[in-house]
Design brief:
Length: 210
């Protein structure tokens, strides 16, 4: 199954992607994680993306489209994949269509802006594998250490409050129109994501099985 996870930054896409990944045994492809890894290893693409990312702006379409086109050719995508954080604009969605990628389901995780702001300021992520945590709601077993890979948990630069607000504005202007795009194709399921993680997970699994 080919799945897209939509939702504002901090809506919980990464957490639900991990759930679906385990449930269906298909890989998660997060453009944000791929760009952060490129930045860490100092590739040309990473350096190009850095200023956009740090300011909470979207990286140009052609850069992320190139990343996705290459990644989807990997063998591990043969039985399906989860796209987390792509597409984020209508031209990105159109590029997927042009590549001949057929999307089966689009799950949109809805969370009010004020909840997002509180969540992101408390978010921590594993610097090695990208798994998200929260200082109050989603603590790791050992403070500051990733449950999966023992990497260190850090706060992302773009999770600072002004950047979060800028990211939300961009989300509403550029990404939210994708709900209509996939709604018109009958592929969209909206999941409430503001309550407990377990509740959102139950709704996500239901949406997959519908
Ligand atoms: P994320 O981890 O998904 O929140 O992504 C972090 C940052 O990476 C975003 O704020 C953008 O700067 C960049 N990014 C990730 N995915 C995309 C995308 N599909 N289109 C444009 N920029 C992206």
């Amino acid at each position: 199954m080919n799945i897209i996870l939509l939702g504002a930054p901090g809506a919980g896409k990464g957490t639900q992607a991990a759930v679906i990944c385990e449930h269906l045994n298909i890989p998660t492809i997060s453009t944000g994680n791929i760009i952060r890894e490129a930045l860490r290893t100092g590739t040309e693409m990473g350096l190009k993306a850095k200023s956009y990312m740090d300011e909470g702006k979207l990286v140009p379409d052609e850069v992320v489209i190139g990343i996705i086109e290459e990644r989807l050719q990997n063998d591990d995508c043969k039985n399906g994949f989860i796209l987390d954080g792509f597409p984020r604009t209508i031209p990105q969605a159109e590029a997927l269509d042009k590549m001949g990628v057929v999307i089966d389901k689009v799950i949109d995780i809805e969370v009010p802006d004020e909840v997002i702001v509180t969540r992101l300021s408390g978010r921590r992520v594993c610097e090695k594998c990208g798994r998200p945590y929260h200082i109050v709601d989603l603590k790791p077993r050992v403070e500051g250490v990733c449950d999966d890979c023992t990497g260190a948990l850090i706060q992302r630069k773009d999770d600072h409050i002004d950047t979060v607000k800028a990211r939300l504005e961009i989300y509403h202007a550029e990404t939210e129109p994708l709900k209509d795009y996939y709604g018109a194709q009958g592929k969209l399921t909206i999941v409430e994501g503001q309550d407990k993680v377990e509740d959102t997970t139950a709704l996500t699994i239901k949406a997959l099985e519908a």
